Amino acid sequence: MCKTCQHKVKSIYDNPKYMFYLEKGEMKLEKYRRKGLKTTYTSHVKKRLYQRCISESEILSALNNGWLIRSKPQSAIILSYTKVGRTYRPIHVVLGYNGDTIEIITAYRPDHFTEVWNDSYDKRICFCEGKKGGMY
Ligand SMILES: [Zn+2]
Fold it and tell me: Which domain holds residue 63?
């Protein structure tokens, strides 16, 4: 891990706000779940999902069963595992809160991005520019 990323990782995950926002986010997400999830997709996301062979039912399953790994007041990242063939593969859904709907910003398989995430895919370990672009 490069020095810049090391510093960035520390500043995110050692910050008490990280846990604070995760807990707040879980409560917020629970409210959306209780009301029955309403989701919106931009055309960009639809294209991405198609390219990545990720279905809308996988997204819904992640929203309902996944857990937050990053939470901000207006957005969040969910980690879940969805069945692909005979195995379960990790999936990240990046979402935004928009009134009573959840806006799907993007979704991807974190295992497709080498050395960007830790082994359990719940912490980002590299923020270098070259690796960032591909996910959105
Ligand atoms: Zn790096």
Answer: 3-135
